[in-house]
Amino acid sequence: MKKPATYNSPVRRIRSYLLSIVFIVAIIIPAVNIFVEIVPDVEINENRLKAPFPAFDFSKLDPFPREFEVYFEDHFVSRNFFLKQYMRLNLLLFQKSVIPDKAVVGSDGWLYMSGFELESYRGDSLFNNIELAELTSEIARRDSIVRASGGNYYFVIVPCKHSVYPEYLPEYAEKTVAKNNAELIMESLQRSTGVKCLFPLKEIQNHKTEQYPLYSKTDNHWNHLGAFYAVQAVAELIRKDYPAVKPLRLSDYRIVVKKQRGGNIAEMFGMQDELAEDFVSLEPIEPVRAHTADKQNYPVLEGFAYPEEYEVVFETGNDSLPKMLIIRESFAGFAAPYLSESSSKAVFIFDAWQHKFNPEIFESEKPDIYIQFVMEGFLRQMLQYSRAEKGSTPN
User: pLDDT tens across 124-136, in order?
Assistant: First the structure.
């Protein structure tokens, strides 16, 4: 019978030596890597600024050790490399998010935003009766201003990814209420106002059984196909007031699928390459009428991260179609080309997710159609910013 290896046996000694060598190398490599880049670092978008080097003050030494520790943790050589491996292990092996305050890991490769998008979907921050009445009144006020000028106001709520694809969410992220804020405000508007409003959740979900996804698996936005179906529903609503607007037909477009890097949620994990996905876009079969046009160069909000997107203008040259003003955010980026086809001129204003009425722009443009294009997660933010704006808006 084979005898077990003793403590002093060659096998045990070799194991001990190897373990010691591995341990020493693991300690030395990060230090050596400061001067010789053995392991190149990687880029990870944590959506925050890294800690600066702390000021050294002999009269106030107590905070320095902790501040330096925070700085070192943020700037540790190859920190991003090791952080990425940690994220990769948890995401791919355990389907676990190591940044639960920013992202939710669903099943079958689906990733979702945490924070206000998840809270809005779940119903964690529901409007109370006073807030619901206040936002309803504000939307009705905007509607009355536009109607008084001879135009039509349309309030469109964009469904978030959680609402369209709830089946891939983990159990803890499931909806906890019968009606969330989007459904509550729609119900309130339909019950107590004449505002033309739309929450095209069912119109989008009706196409989920088809071959292509409607939202990106690794981004919080819809793709071109999801945007098209939403705009198709908006166009049908507009056609009731403007018969010259033609219905949008998917048969006028060619569906194109291309592999591309993962989206903004994959970027949070530093895994845009590993989480590449098939992205769905639409190419018009015939030349489209809408083309970009000159801007009025309205003043961009101070500190807005995307100043080049603040004002975007399309024109079709067809004066029989209505002129549109759309107050929007990022979801309207893919929707703009399709919506613009139903207008003579379409002015898109990205007002930094504030969703104000923007009276100065309204007075300047004098549109036939005013569309408030707001993702459901921003309804509470819209209420907050509208309070600050009321004093400058005409009654």
Answer: 999 999 999 999 9
